[in-house]
Amino acid sequence: MTQLSGGFAALGLHPNILAAVIATGYEEPSAIQLQSIPVILDGHDMIGQAQTGTGKTAAFALPILSRIDPAKREPQALILAPTRELALQVATAFETYAKQMPGVNVVAVYGGAPMGPQLKAIRNGAQIVVATPGRLVDHLRRDEKVLSTVQHLVLDEADEMLKLGFMDDLEVIFKAMPETRQSVLFSATLPHSIRAIAEKHLRNPKHVKIETKTQTVTAIEQAHLLVHADQKHSAVLRLLEVEEFDALIAFVRTKQATLDLAAALEAKGYKAAALNGDIAQNQRERVIDSLKDGRLDIVVATDVAARGLDVPRITHVMNVDMPYDPESYVHRIGRTGRAGRTGRALLLVTPRERRMLQVIERVTGQKVAEVRLPDAAAVLTARIKKLTSSLAPLVADAEATHGDLLDRLTADIGCSPRALAAALLRKATNGQALTLAEVEREQPLVPNSAPRERSERSGERSERGDVRERRAPMPLADGRARCRTALGARDGIAAKNLLGAILNEGGLAREAIGRIQVRDSFSLVELPEDGLERLLTKLKDTRVAGKQLKLRRYRED
Ligand code: AMP
């Protein structure tokens, strides 16, 4: 445990839950977590005003898990979520935090999947039930006792649930639980309807709200981009091509994310390093010194590790992961625009985090303009501009120093000066894509607009747009085929696991593997068309995270 985990350690969580949180790489509790965890641990009812992106899931999951009795094999906590996507996400979060609590089981209950296995999982002793209201009511109709042992109830995104018309279902659910239960309600907004529910069904609830003082931000040009969570790395790489930065700090949420992004940037030739709470103090100082004197240009940091960082060279702050609250946003972007210079701050926003963006805009009193991801033409223009500015200063005296050599080489090779200059350019640019077609092939376009999420009820749509399963597939590069496996994030799979397995067992070179997209319930991998059948046969028995990969060619229609 690093000394930086002190923030979580002081909250009174069960030691095994604390251990799992630390293993997840969180360095310190977010504001909503700091305030909610002690209240929920104490058994109070609570109203938490917080939106997605503040860390609200852990704010209720960690204390509730700490209060679960693994020996009792019956539903002890019920989490209600407005949509299937959110229910799955919350269930996954519970599973992550319960990793070191043997005997704790989580079941997700939502519409569109068979009821039998869900009921079986509940009856088999799942202590945590994460459900959408409509489907849960269907279960109650079959077995009205199914919630009779619930001691903790959480209504997550309560305002969304009401917007989707779940009011009547909620009433049915409230009635099916013991009155002695603890009830916690999280909502981004507290309209009258939510207050009425709280009044009727919560007992002396404590209110937790993250105070957001108005903050002023000057001399910093702010912009945001909509991206999907799994496209962040490619979005960052594209942005870096066109943004003219001196030094840049990129903020992410976890230690692992600092390492992953720094490695991805280094692989592309950037002078980048990670800065997180696991890195020893003297090493951290070395990283900051290197950023100051130009041995490094990019630092990928967590909020904790970047505390107090003051490097005048920083022209850009990139919020790769959303900050938990507007204060930390203001704090982060204040790393640039130092010493009277102007700075630029970019914010990547996933569809579910749009609300957080609105809060930031409200608190800072400024609009954070939307920009589009640079297209291939913009990337190409930027590359040529860089090449021009690196060569222009050499032209003045190069002829004097190397002119004779040029004459000799053209004569020896028997080529024109243009042909030789072109060959030298090819060598100098190291195989970099420098035509539009090449750039397009290298970086398949990422769609800019974020699709919207369908709710559990047909015909209704929710505001959050994270439709991971229905997203339009990316265009395929020439010579590539898209393959699908039924393993996804919910199986504990990350892109690097798939990459590792395919590299090792398929005997492919890294370049042969294209985009890997990990969704909740499946993943897509781009592989070479040539020899695909043979490769799939080779991978027939490959297992990832203990499960059979079963990769198949995927047809979009
Ligand atoms: P939520 O607001 O619950 O949707 O959480 C947003 C994201 O923040 C999730 O990806 C969490 O895994 C992550 N997260 C939550 N708490 C922390 C923390 N204390 N440190 C780092 N990441 C966190």
Automatic annotation (TrEMBL):
Its main location: cytoplasm. It catalyses: ATP + H2O = ADP + phosphate + H(+). GO terms for molecular function: ATP binding; ATP hydrolysis activity; RNA helicase activity; RNA strand annealing activity. It comes from the Bacteria. GO terms for cellular component: cytosol; ribosome. Residues 235-379 form the Helicase C-terminal domain. Residues 451-472 have a biased composition (Basic and acidic residues). SMART domains: DEXDc, HELICc. The keyword Cytoplasm applies. DEAD-box RNA helicase involved in various cellular processes at low temperature, including ribosome biogenesis, mRNA degradation and translation initiation. This is ATP-dependent RNA helicase DeaD. It comes from Pseudomonas cavernicola. The lineage of its organism: Bacteria, Pseudomonadati, Pseudomonadota, Gammaproteobacteria, Pseudomonadales.
